[in-house]
Design goal:
The protein is globular and about 70 Å long. The longest helix is centred in the C-terminal third of the chain and has 23 residues. Strand 1 and strand 2 form a beta hairpin. It is of the alpha/beta class and 399 residues long. It has 14 helices and eight strands. Strands 1-2-4-3-5-8-6-7 form an eight-stranded mixed β-sheet, with helices on both faces. Bound molecules: zinc ion. Zinc ion binds next to strand 5.
């Protein structure tokens, strides 16, 4: 049953085993790419890629990826497994269609219950073609400045404590950031100094527009994009040309969690409103769920996997949709990421607080609530069905 909560694996090893078994049973070709790192129990870590080809050369390709953000893979893997055990069992691609289903794009983060990879890299900020913006772009310089001012709060160089007044510290930091933003406004646009609410709003806005951009200066800090391509990034970069081949059209669903309204989803685009991609996506998936850059949930990140794929697939109408399923509030998610990162870098991995932070980070990206799991599984499957329909129907894929 698609809504069966048992489709959510307990950990990476179980998820990998079930994905491989179900994919093989569905007659795919399976690629396994081991990375140079081990699971906590010493087990092997791999990106597993299942591929199905219809008769003839692939003209249209559908790509479904999970686990780019490590522990978010518990959700993405469950959606992939749900499809493999239901429709996937008897599904055969029509002529000219290829399906590529990649499991656990960040197997280290998945196995170690982290969002980041083995070098603490946020892989969805790591797919950079050109790094010159680091020294030349004024907007990046500004978000870097904001990040640097928040660094003492985001990344304290000490183990976490359950008794830290996190919420109080977070509110104080946001307010301080809002006061800084107020000082930078022209005098006639500044809210009154006593208007705490307005300054708090300015602080929140600064966080929302700066943190998700990623940073490239604090290797142990949250949202670090890396000093160069990560090993999993290089694996995907080398395999992508073969997966897509000479196809003229590709739809890519990249499964994520942790942003947006609980148990609901948005399909985030890498382009702004008004583009051909935005119009096409709204038409195929629904105007209510598609969100171009600049919307309520979408963020302007650099080095995202979608931007990279788009940049190399020049002869292909490539459509990237980041399917984001909501879990908890942004402050709770940030608190969990912050505590886990402190425990990972500064705690003892046998300590109680270490285990608590790991469980907490799993909970905020894949809640144990049966209601949440049943809902997102059904919605995730529905997104895959829609994507299959537009990929396999020649008329829907026409511009
Ligand atoms: Zn994610």
């Amino acid at each position: 049953m698609p809504s069966d909560a048992n489709l959510f694996s307990k950990d990476y090893a179980e998820a990998r085993y079930r994905f491989r078994t179900a994919a093989m049973a569905a007659n795919c070709q399976l690629e396994c790419h081991a990375i140079d790192a081990k699971a906590p129990d010493g087990g092997e870590l791999t990106i597993d890629v299942a591929c199905w080809d219809g008769p003839g050369l692939p003209e249209r390709v559908m790509i479904v990826t999970s686990g780019l953000h490590g522990t978010e893979g518990l959700f993405g893997s469950a959606v992939q497994l749900a499809w493999l055990r239901t429709e996937g069992k008897s599904w055969r691609p029509p002529a000219g269609v290829r399906l590529v289903m990649a499991h656990a794009l960040n197997p280290y983060g998945f196995a170690w219950r982290r969002r980041w990879d083995e070098n603490s890299i946020d892989l969805n900020r790591n797919y950079l073609v050109d790094r010159s913006f680091l020294t030349t772009d004024a907007n990046y310089a500004q978000s870097r400045q904001v990040y640097t001012s928040l660094d003492p709060f985001l990344n304290p160089p000490s183990p976490p404590s359950r008794f830290e007044p996190y919420a109080f510290n977070a509110l104080r930091t946001i307010l301080a950031s809002g006061r800084e933003a107020r000082r930078q406004l022209p005098t006639d646009r500044r809210p009154l100094f006593v208007d705490i609410r307005a300054q708090f709003g300015l602080g929140l806005r600064r966080l929302r527009t700066s943190l998700p951009v990623g940073q490239y200066e604090h290797p142990q800090g949250l949202f670090f994009g890396g000093h160069g391509p990560a090993q999993t990034t290089r694996i995907l970069q080398s395999r992508l040309p073969e997966w897509v081949g000479s196809a003229s059209f590709a739809v890519h669903i990249d499964l994520h969690t942790g942003l947006g309204r609980r148990a609901d989803y948005k399909l985030l685009l890498d382009t702004g409103p008004g583009t051909e991609t935005a119009r096409w996506s709204a038409k195929c998936f629904g105007v209510d769920v598609v969100e171009p850059v600049g919307g309520e949930t979408a963020y302007a990140a650099r080095g995202s996997i979608g931007q990279y794929f788009q940049s190399v697939l020049k002869d292909c109408r490539y459509r990237y949709l980041c399917a984001e399923f909501g879990t908890y509030s942004p402050m709770r998610v940030l608190g969990a990421l912050r505590a886990e990162n402190r425990a990972h870098h500064h705690g003892r991995n046998t300590g109680r607080s270490y285990e608590w932070t790991k469980r907490n980070v799993v909970e905020v990206f894949c809640p144990t609530s049966p209601a949440w799991r049943a809902t997102v599984l059904n919605k995730g499957l529905e997104v895959l069905r829609q994507a299959f329909a537009v990929t396999t129907s020649a008329t829907a894929s026409d511009p």
